[in-house]
Amino acid sequence: MDIEQKQAEFIDYFVKQAENQKGSSLVNVIVEATSHPSLFAFSEILSVPSIIQLQGTEFSVYIDVLRLFAHGTWSDYKSNAGSLPPLVPSQVRKLKQLSLLTLAEVDKVLPYDLLMVELDVSNVRELEDFLINECMYSGIVRGKLDQLRRCFEVQFAAGRDLRPGQLGSMIQTLSAWLSTSDNLLVSIQDKIKWADTRSELDKKHQKEIEDRVEEVKKTLN
Amino acid sequence: EEQVLIIREKLAELYEAEQEWSKAARMLSGIDLDSSIRLLDESYKLSKCVKIASLYLEDDDAVNAETFTNKASFLVNNSKQEVLVLQYKVCAARILDMKRKFLDAALKYYEISQIEKRQIGDEWIDEEALEQALTAAVTCTILAPAGPQRSRVLANFYKDERCSKLKIYPILEKVYLERILRKPEIDSFAEDLKEHQKALLPDNFTVLDRAMIEHNLLSASKLYTNISFEELGALLGIAPPKAEKIASKMIYEDRMKGSIDQVEAFIHFDDDKEELQQWDQHIVGLCQSLNDVLDTMSKKGL
Amino acid sequence: DNSLLRQVSSLLRRLPAIESGKFQDDFL
């Protein structure tokens, strides 16, 4: 079952939780959601009215936490730690998992050195254990670890919540896909036509040769 | 001979009551089942062979037990006594298990666990016994040498919904999904193993160690393109030379695809599938995901 | 629909489907 199906029920659960709570009790909902081991999507929760109403209150910092988990990375958290509440270990782990997804958006081959910096990991064993246990085995990424080249090759990475302004580039990429696919189909059609034509010509040529052979045989007889 | 037979059976009963299993077995095995003086009918012979084998197995004596299951194997096919046949099958499975022919044992346990009847003769077959047989089947498969054959048997068990109710299911799932097993999981699995399944092998590893190391090595081959022996040893919790030795054995026995670069002290894992096939597979996967998105969109009326 | 957008976002990164040097040789 893919990650979106797995987390759909948790999204619904926390959206309902948020809809039924107000003020300070929303803080627990946010902390619980950003700690849940199977939840990697936060846009739906961010758009719940009662959450939005936290803006401007003493709890607005928890909207920043939700935004951080929706779009941010571990590095973002470290550079804003002063203005954000401390994270519990399960939140730290999740933010690092989400950071990997963001890194995988940029490139499919992630160097260990980059990962160790971005994920605050001190050695290869620890990095690989994190990638194996917390990322590959939790289903958010699939890929291969290459120790010789010291990199992680990503084959699949779950999608994160879209950052504002990302939609445009997605549409661009999709339309590029579309035209490439159309061109591909056209060129495949051309190749098929070319192959058919060639085989016709070869058959005709084959026939001519055979006829010539027959003639020569008759002449000899 | 008649009197001797009766005395032997009586004495064997007494030894059995004292849980002196091997003495009871030896007492019964003194009965001359192939006597030319007095013909014994086949079902009597079969029942004695099975009884003696079961008694030896109570003392984990697979060698003597096998002697009598071999004798019984010539008699069992003509037997109409289902209870005896079942007991014979249990003995045969347990002997394979003790001889560490785990995959063969697993298949025999599995066959036993699939019995449909709940009453054979005047014997009742309770669910718990079948569950034990199923658990034994899964345990033996997990202990079997990691490789394609074991994966096929694991897949059968993983799809058998009876397994999902077993205590051993969580580890069956991880093994089936070819996940690396960590020490706490291995320790909890070890709790329910029999003595011979934790016995020490000549290379100073236990049967369980070997099974777990090979399993984790095969699981690592699905995650890594290549790995240094240093790191592989750290991952498996064993010395790097040992990791190299086990890896070379598995590659040699064609249970894992790869090659060893001793100069660099690296192992390079090969994929079962050719690159072109993988390419096809990735594109198929992509198209399926695209279809899933389109299906979701049409379901949502977008 | 956030879930769909996340799925599409994940899809976009699935290409190129494979990049290894070995693949180039095999493909050629």
Q: What do you see in this structure?
A:
The complex is a heterotrimer of chains A (221), B (302) and C (28). Chain A is mainly α and 221 residues long. Helices cover 67% and strands 7% of the residues of chain A. Chain A is built from ten helices and three strands. Chain A has a three-stranded antiparallel β-sheet. The model of chain A has no long low-confidence stretch (mean pLDDT 94). Helices cover 64% and strands 6% of the residues of chain B. In chain B, α3 (42-58) runs antiparallel to α4, α4 (62-76) packs antiparallel against α5 (82-98) and α5 packs antiparallel against α6. Chain C starts with a helix and ends with a helix. The mean pLDDT of chain C is 86. Chain C: It comes from Papaver somniferum. Chain C: It is found in: Cytoplasm; Nucleus. Chain C: Belongs to the peptidase M67A family. CSN6 subfamily. Chain C: This is COP9 signalosome complex subunit 6.
Q: How are the strands ordered across the major sheet of chain B?
A: 3-5-4
Helix count, DSSP H or I runs of 4 or more residues of chain B:
14
The tally of strands of chain B reads 5
DSSP helix fraction of chain B: 55-70%
Q: What is the succession of H and E elements of chain B?
A: HHHHHHEEHHHHHEHHEEH
The rough form of chain B would be described as elongated
Q: Report strand % of chain A.
A: 5-15%
% residues in beta strands of chain B:
5-15%
List the helices and strands of chain A in order: HHHHHHHEHHEEH
What is the end-to-end distance of chain A? 76 Å
Cα Rg of chain A:
29 Å
Protein name (chain C): COP9 signalosome complex subunit 6
Subcellular location (chain C): Cytoplasm; Nucleus
Family (chain C): Belongs to the peptidase M67A family. CSN6 subfamily.
Organism (chain C): Papaver somniferum (Opium poppy)
Topology:
The complex is a heterotrimer of chains A (221), B (302) and C (28).
Chain A: H1 3-20, H2 24-33, H3 43-46, H4 49-52, H5 60-71, H6 74-79, H7 89-106, E1 109-111, H8 112-118, H9 124-136, E2 141-146, E3 151-157, H10 166-220
Antiparallel strand pairs in A: 1-3, 2-3
Helix pairs in contact in A: 1-2
Chain B: H1 2-17, H2 21-29, H3 42-58, H4 62-76, H5 82-98, H6 102-113, E1 119-120, E2 123-124, H7 127-143, H8 148-159, H9 169-176, H10 183-190, H11 207-223, E3 224-228, H12 229-236, H13 240-252, E4 258-261, E5 266-269, H14 275-299
Antiparallel strand pairs in B: 1-2, 3-5, 4-5
Helix pairs in contact in B: 1-2, 2-3, 3-4, 3-5, 4-5, 5-6, 6-7, 8-9, 12-13
Chain C: H1 2-11, H2 21-27
